[in-house]
Amino acid sequence: MPCDGNVTLFGRWCPEYSNRNSGAELTMIPAAPVLSADENREREFGVLKVESIEAYYGKLKVLIGVSLELTSGQLVAVIGANGAGKSTLLKTIMGINQAAHGIIEFMGQRIEEKDPDQITRLGISMVPEGRWIFSAMTVQENLNLGSVPLSDKRKIKEQLDLVYSVFPRLKDRSKQKAGLLSGGEQQMLAIGRGLMAKPKLLMLDEPSLGLSPLLIREIFRITKEIHGNGIPVLLIEQNMSMSMKIATYVYVMETGRMRLSGLPEKILADQDVRQFYLGEGKGRYVSRKDRWRGRMS
Amino acid sequence: MLMQQIVSGLALGSVYALVALGFIIIYKATEVLNFAQGDMMMFCAFINYSLLINGSISVFSTILITLMFGAALGFILERGILRPMIGRPLFATVLVTMGVGICLRAIAGVIWGHQAKAVPEILSITPIQVLPGVPVSPFHLAIFFSTIAIVAFLSVFFQYTRAGTAMRAVSMHHLASFLMGIRVRRIFSMTWVISGFVGALGGMLIAPLTFLNPDLGWIGLNAFPAAVLGGFGSIPGAIVGGLMMGVCENIAGGYLPEGIKNVFAWIVLILVLMIRPEGFFGTYEEKKV
Q1: Given an 8 Å threshold on Cβ–Cβ distance, is A132 in contact with B173?
Q2: ipTM score of the complex?
Q3: Is the Cβ pair B179, A128 closer than 8 Å?
Q4: β-bridge pairing A75-80 and A233-237
């Protein structure tokens, strides 16, 4: 560790970096940060690289040559309509689905042949759609299960304290059965459980699904906070307008293909995207009767 | 008379409970009904018998070796036969366990023959007066208390250790457990090891109560109705169901016509499944996929 400041959610807080404008900065040149082996790999290879993968459900091709790249410090959002293959993409990265072709690299290591548990232990945490919390267990036990990849007891305790500081509501309910939590709390538990592993990449699959607008906002705020603390995030969302606000890079998926990618501003400028996903632009009203006749009004 | 039957029924029921426990542990984690459970128990009982007859090592180490053997047997079966079956249809896996059971029975028959054998007594089976009016043999007591001990040990293990919590997680949701980074296949192995261990204990305890021959595996199958009675999939249910089944069977043997005793457990199985399929403690834990 280059310095020992306070422990924050995802590492140590280093006063000499954050107080850029303080007087001390002028006289003291901060030492170059000592990178750990992981950080070196991250710098060299990027975090996640997906290269033209294909995946099938039975005979149905659901991913057609999908590529995606995520470097450190990014919050990448993959958006698209229902059935575009977003969730399948995540599951394929995670090893739940098998990729028929293509390469998946995590920090320079090929992972497309690995099992989900191995991939989790390598440092990818996935928060699945539908949360998959262990509803018959307490909140505390759920979080403990999230820390399976960590072996050091002190680290686990540290991580638990940090997760509780992000989600104070979970701390109040730590002894309660997870199945008794509300939908929003369950989503928070699922995210907190994902963070317990001290992931090097967090993948969220539709975290806003089925939540009230207020909670959706809260979830997005937390996602942004996690990203702000230095964890790269891969976010799968249908809620385009919210994702655009927090993402640093956006991919748009359509029927198994990557259709567009770019900075959020660029995506937002795209005419089709505005029309299809944000419901803007000149929509033409076609009456049903006329459609039947095959005529446009 | 009735008291006596209840007491010896509890002892027999403890063994059922142990075998049922073995069933349930594997079933909850892997969803496989292990029909070889009774035969694993029988095989371990034979190992125990051989070691006792041989007599060159102390009784204590005999027990220890038998337990170790049971655990190893579970491990080998899982690694060699069940693990390659992961991902195949469930019924195929269940049929494979059935085949394994029959093979174990045949192997035991080849090695030890089919004549019934009397197992040397470790503890006296002759009843002594423990409480006034209730004669209990030390061996029955030992059965009862070792069952309670192992059940208490396992509950603590499942509730409070990291491995135990991981096992419970696997029993609730396989994929989510994978996503936690739990080595699910290793958990499968562990459940078979524990089942083998519990089965070995059951085998050692039941063999002196009956005669030992390769068909002892059928008696092990009686644990199946016991587990259903308690509520299939519930560990406390397996214990209570096992104990009740033992008592009921003994009482049925005492008061009902000859022959009913052997099928009594299966009559109960049919009745329970028709009237109250969730048993005493059954809960339907919904699996969300």
Answers
A1: yes
A2: 0.81
A3: yes
A4: parallel
